[in-house]
Every structure is written in C-alpha cells, then in structure tokens.
Amino acid sequence: MRKPLVAGNWKMNSPDESSKTLLENILHDSKMLDSILKEQENASAIDIALFPPSVFLREAQEILTGSNLHWGTQNVSAYDEGPYTGEISASMIKNFGCDYVLIGHSERRCLYEKLELDQFVLDQIVAEKYTMATRHGLSPIICIGETAEDYEAGKTEEVIARLLDVLIKHQGAKALSQTVLAYEPVWAIGTGKSATPEWAQEVHAFMRERVAQSDTETAESLRIIYGGSVKKENARAIFAKPDVDGGLIGGASLDVDQFIKICFAAALKEAG
Ligand code: 13P
C-alpha cells in the first residue's frame, strides 16, 4: 500500500502567528494526531511535509529535526552553482535537512510564461530541476495541472501526458519511484473550487496508467497527490479515491486546525 502524503505549501505567505509558532504548533498537533492514530484501528501512518518560504528553513530545521515531520523548499535551481541570482541549489537545500522539493508549481510556471516560453520548453526546465533534485537525494514533488482554458478544451490528458513523457525520457520511468506527482488543476488553486473526487480520481488513474506503460511496478508504488482548494470539509472524500494518495495543501496549511484535520483525513484513507 502507498503511504499517504500531506504536504503544506505556505507559498509566499507570512503566517498570522510567527513562522516559528506555526511550525511549533503543527509539530505539537501532529504528535497528538500520531497518538490518536495509534488508537484508531482503521487509520494508517502518513507522511507530512511542510514547505515554508526558504527564509524560514533554518527555523524549520531547528524545530522539526528529530520529529516525524519532513520539510522542503518551494523551488530548486536547475544548476549546481554559479551566477544565478535569486536561485537556490539542491545541495544548499539538502544542507538545511530538507527531504522534499516542489518542482513545476503553476505559480512558478506562469513566471516563465511571461517570457512566452513554449510549454514543452517549460516541461524541459521542470525535468532538469527534477534531475538535479534526485541527484542530490531530494524527493521531488512534481506539480502538473491544466489551466481552465485547457480544461474547457478537453486538453487535460494532453497537458499531463506531455510532462510525464518528458520526465520519463529524462531519467527513465524507474527514477519516478523517488518522486511524488501532484495533480494541481490551475483552476482549482486558491479559488475555493476544488476538483470533484471523481475528476481527481479519473486524472490520477490516467497519470498512473501513463507511467505503467513504461513500468508497471513503479506506477503501482508512485504517490500521486491532489492539490487545489483542499479543506478539512472535502479532504476525506477526495483522499478516499483509490488513486489519490494524499494532498498538496495551500491556504489551509497555514491554519493548524485545518491542516491537522486534513492529515487525519489522509490517515483514514483506507477506511473510505
Ligand atoms: P490552495 O490549497 O490554496 O488552493 O493551493 C493549492 C496549491 O497551490 C498547493 O500547492
């Protein structure tokens, strides 16, 4: 069985409480969640990962080291080192004790889109970052999702297949076993309009099948999480779907109560 993952992407938000307090509160409540889960017959262990802005990485490392929680960055450079102003390399990230890194989030892709780069070129950049992350022992969470326009035009599968094929071409399908895929439809991010559980399941099954065409074993073990307006109210129904292995949470990850309840929903996945 795949271990569910719930990842909190803080984006460029300063939490209402200080970042230190938010990290401490999440840690505290996640420990309470752990003890509740131990008592709960139909609950399974989950992974939790936090993605604060990089300026808070030192705090994350100090507070979370030795706990069950993981942390990571919201981006990584495609280069090892050099004159890349504003970028952070995979080895620097690793030095902060990070296990994971987000790659290809649509809120970063759109920065490149302003340069009017072709989508295929953007997918290549994502693949280069992916290669860099895995080379340094980081687990990438690679985000992919269609815009509202692509959704209306029925191009969801085309958009997703294009990136998956590029990733597979770069490192082979086996390398995806170190990776998490995040389906994040752009129209669902920060809009309050989440995908239905049925739609998420359909797209996740398509993603798994696409990887299975190259490697069935990797496809079976690959975690595919859903992101886009996940809240405590809809998490359980979305996570209950067989190919949804947890969530990538934006706004709700800044609220300890919401976030921990979403984690709880992931732990109850097998209970349906
Ligand atoms: P929201 O949960 O705020 O919709 O954001 C989702 C997201 O972009 C996570 O990476």
What features would you highlight for this structure?
alpha/beta, single chain, 272 residues, TIM Barrel, 11 helices, 8-stranded parallel β-barrel
| Shape summary | globular
Strand content: 5-15%
How many beta-strand segments? 8
State Rg.
17 Å
Query: What would you call the structural class?
Result: alpha/beta
Tally of individual helices: 11
Strand order of the largest sheet: 1-2-3-4-5-6-7-8
What is the highest CATH level, the class? Alpha Beta
Number of domains: 1
Q: Spell out which ligands are present.
A: 1,3-dihydroxyacetonephosphate
What is the string of helix and strand elements? EHEHEHEHHEHHEHHEHEH
**Largest sheet geometry:** 8 strands, parallel, barrel
Compute the average pLDDT: 94
Unreliable stretches (pLDDT < 50, length at least 5) are none
CATH homology superfamily = Aldolase class I
- Give the CATH architecture: Alpha-Beta Barrel
Distance N to C terminus = 14 Å
Specify the helix fraction band: 40-55%
CATH topology: TIM Barrel
Structure, described:
It is a single chain. Strand 2, helix 2 (57-64) and strand 3 form a beta-alpha-beta unit. Helices cover 44% and strands 14% of the residues. Strands 1-2-3-4-5-6-7-8 form an eight-stranded parallel beta barrel, surrounded by five helices. The protein is built from eleven helices and eight strands. The model has no long low-confidence stretch (mean pLDDT 94). The chain has a single domain (5-271), classed as TIM Barrel (Alpha-Beta Barrel), CATH 3.20.20.70. The chain has 272 residues and is an alpha/beta fold. The two termini are 14 Å apart. The structure holds 1,3-dihydroxyacetonephosphate. 1,3-dihydroxyacetonephosphate (13P) binds at residues 9, 105, 184, 189-190, 227-230, 248-252.
